[in-house]
Give the backbone structure.
Amino acid sequence: MKKDKKYIEKYGSFYHSKDWRNCRRIKMANNPLCEECLKKGKLVEAEEVHHIIPIDTKQGWELRLNLDNLESLCTECHNEKHKSRQSAMSQFDRFWDSLQDSKKETKGEK
Ligand SMILES: [Zn+2]
Ligand SMILES: [Zn+2]
């Protein structure tokens, strides 16, 4: 897959951007709990911000900074979400989604 490098450069610079960091911070502030767990009635601290529509799609890219396209998730739920997508981009996306600027000092207990 020779295409992947260019691909990764494009999305990598997005994930490095100030805009994305701000956006992620806002999302985490708005939704500090895992939204997926919340649906099941569990209160779990969110650790990662996920793009609902993957950013390597046309629509997802347009919505990359749209809060409606973001989901706060715990690591477990996030892994589940990305399991269904097997592309190289999916792995990359997963990696970046999970990087946080300011890790909270208290890690949620498992
Ligand atoms: Zn969860
Ligand atoms: Zn994700």
In short: The chain has one domain: 17-97. Residues 104-110 have pLDDT under 50 and may be disordered.
